[in-house]
Amino acid sequence: MDWQAIRLSLWLAALTTVVLLLLGLPLAYWLAFSRRRWKFLVEAVVAMPLVLPPTVLGFYLLMAMGPRSPLGRAWEGLFGSTLPFSFEGLLIASVLYSLPFMIQPLAAAFASVDRGLIEASWCLGESRLRTFLRVIAPLSWAGILTGVVLSFAHTLGEFGVVLMVGGNLPGRTRTVSIAIYDQVQAMDYAPAARTAALLLGVSFLVLTFTYALRRHQRKPWTLI
Amino acid sequence: MDAHLNADGPHLLANAERHYRGGPTVEARFEIPRPGFSVTVLFGPSGSGKTTALRLLAGLERADRGSIRFDGATWSHATEGIHRPPQGRDLGFLPQAYALFPHLSVAGNLGYGLAALDAHARTARIGELVGLLDLKGLEQRHPGELSGGQQQRVALGRALARKPALLLLDEPLSALDRPSQVRLRKELRDLLRTLDIPTVLVTHDRAEALQLGDRLVVMDQGRVCQCGDIQQVFDRPTDPAVARILGVETVVRGRIEAIVGGMATIAVGAARLFAADPGGLGWEVFVCIRGEDVAVERGAGPGSGSTARNRLPARITALNPEGSLVRISLDCGFPLESLVTRQACVDLGLTEGDQVCAILKAAAVHLIPHD
C-alpha cells in the first residue's frame, strides 16, 4: 500500500475540514438567517460543486491559479512558488469542492433552531455572537458533526479535481484515490484492492459513528 | 437622556406602528403613567396584534412609524432611525411558549442572562430566584423534565433574573391547564406587586385580564380601540366593537362583606349580591354577570317561590332591541344589563323608567378576585 499517499490524503482531508469549518460557520449563519433578496444566488453558488463535474471545477481552478491569472501572480509574488500542482493548490481546490458538504448541514441545523430561543437570548442581554455561541451552536451540534464528517470523507475520496489541479506528485499531491488509479492502470490489482478496502472501511466506520451519535435526535434526517 | 428630564411625562409612552406588506398594520399605542407596580393588559381576540405590539416594545420588531419612550430614554423613533435592540432595553420578556433553553438545566436557564456577574454573585442570584419561584430541588433538571407550571416559573424567573425595569409577559398562563391558571393568577399578581416592576401582559382571557390587570388596552385588527383603567373600560366601552370584544357581561367592582357556608355576600355600589364562593377570594372582587342570566319581573316585593337568591329593585334606564332579543339596561345601585326576548318585553309592557325587580341566581354571579 502507498502509505505516503494515505498520509497525504488524511492530512489534506483534516486541513480542508478545519478551513471549511472556519469559513462555514459564518457563511452558514448568514445563509440561515439573512433576509437579503439575493440570498438564493449565494445558495446556488455554494451548491454548484454538487452538480458540476469535478473536471470542470478542476479546469476553472487550474485557470484561476495559473501564473497568468491575478490569483496565481499574487501567490507567486507572496510565496515564490506556483499554486497548481502544489499541496496548497490542492487544499484550495478541496475546500471549494467540499463547500456544500459543510455549508448545507450547518445552515440547515442553524435554521432549525427555534427562533424563540434566539430572541429569548437577545432579550436576556446577549449579543448575536454570544447567542450563537451559547444557544445556536450547542443546539446544532448534530449538524456541525455531520458537516465535519461529510467534508472529511468527501475530501478523502476526491479524484477528478485532484487530478486536474494537483497532478500526481508523490508526497505532494498524490492522494490515495490517485494511487489506486495508478495501481489499476499498472495492472497492479493486489495493492489497489487493499487500498480500496481501507477507504471503504474508513468511510463506513466514520458514517456509522456519525449515525450512532445522532440516533437520539428526534427529527428524521438526511445527510445533506 | 436623563430620567428626570422626562419626570412629568408617562413612564412608558408607546406610539408606534408596524406595517406588514400586503397585511395589516399593528400599533402599540398606550402608556404606563408611573413607575412601580402596575399591570397593563393588552387584551383582544387572537390575531388582534397583541403579541406584535408586545414585540415592538421588546425591540424584536422594528417600528416603521412613531416612537417608544421609556423612563426618559428613546427606545425607538422611526423618523430619526433610532431602534434600540432588545439587548439594550433592560427588560424581562416571557414569550408565549416560554422558550426555555433545552440544553441548559433550570439553574442554567435562570442564570443565562447573568453572564456579567462573577460566579459567586451569579450562584447567589440563582439561589434567590429558586426560592422566590419555589423551584427548590429542580435546579439540575432540564426543561423537558418539568411540568408546565414549573416551566412557567422557570421562564418567569429567567425573565426576572436581571432585575429588569420593565416586564413583558405574553400569555403567561395560557399553556397551563385551567385549575393551574386560576391558582397561578393570584400568585403571579402577588409576585409582581412584591417585585414592584411595571408589567405589560398579553392575554385573550377576560378573567385573567380582570384579575391581573390595572389598566386595559383593548386591541382589534391591529388597532388599539380603547385604553384606560380596567373598570373604566369595562364600564364605558367607547364603541360597540370594544363592547363586543369585552363580552356581554356586566363587570363591576365589589367588596366581600361576608362568606358563610360557601355563600359570599358582596357589596356592589348601593346593592348587595349573593354568590357562590369560588375560593381564594380576598376583599376586592370583580363581579361578572351575563345578560342572559338576569331575569326581569314586575313589582319589587320580596319573592317567595323561587330559588333565585338575588332579587334587586331596579329602574329601567334603556331598552335596546338586538334581533329577537332586547337588551335592558337597569340601575339597581350599579349598572346591570339584562337580555330578554322581545315577546317577554311586550308581555310585561316594559318601558324606560319603570320600576322592576332584577332576578339572578347566586350561581350566575361570577367572582374574580382583584386585590
UniProtKB/TrEMBL annotation, chain A:
Pfam families: BPD_transp_1 (PF00528). PROSITE patterns: ABC_TM1. It is found in: Cell membrane. It is a multi-pass membrane protein. GO terms for molecular function: molybdate ion transmembrane transporter activity. The chain crosses the membrane at residues 12-33, 40-65, 85-111, 132-153, 192-213. GO terms for cellular component: plasma membrane. Keywords: Cell membrane, Membrane, Molybdenum, Transmembrane, Transmembrane helix, Transport. Residues 6-211 form the ABC transmembrane type-1 domain. SUPFAM superfamilies: MetI-like. Belongs to the binding-protein-dependent transport system permease family. CysTW subfamily. Part of the binding-protein-dependent transport system for molybdenum; probably responsible for the translocation of the substrate across the membrane. This is Molybdenum transport system permease. It comes from Candidatus Geothrix skivensis. The lineage of its organism: Bacteria, Pseudomonadati, Acidobacteriota, Holophagae, Holophagales. The gene is modB.
